[in-house]
């Protein structure tokens, strides 16, 4: 069992509220989303594991149980071509929950016309595999978002 924690401080809003049909329809996988505070911040690792995919706008950490957790920093932020994002780790690095991964500013993303909402998704999982999914209320970076059985 894996507890997936919030990579950011903000408000959990649930995937259904994400302004992107791929995420809101859980096509990538089940999970939740965080509407981040609008200030410069650092996205942190939501689980202990290995960074298997790393882009300025998104990263995947796979834990010891083989669970891949995607953190996507904003919606359509790939179109920013890395502008405003600073990678703090490398693909293949081992990270601990709470380690800094990407520095960014959600307010700048919003000013660029993109949504700063951040889906946190359990890859290759079923909705039934998740429990205690946070879909409302304030969350701090490192607070539990969901449990993956």
UniProtKB/TrEMBL annotation:
Domain PTS EIIA type-1 positions: 20-124
Keywords: Kinase, Phosphotransferase system, Sugar transport, Transferase, Transport
InterPro entries, per the entry: Dup_hybrid_motif, PTS_EIIA_1_perm, PTS_EIIA_component
Location(s) in or outside the cell: Cytoplasm
Main location: cytoplasm
Identification of the protein by name: PTS glucose transporter subunit IIA
Source organism: Streptomyces lycii
Source lineage: Bacteria, Bacillati, Actinomycetota, Actinomycetes, Kitasatosporales
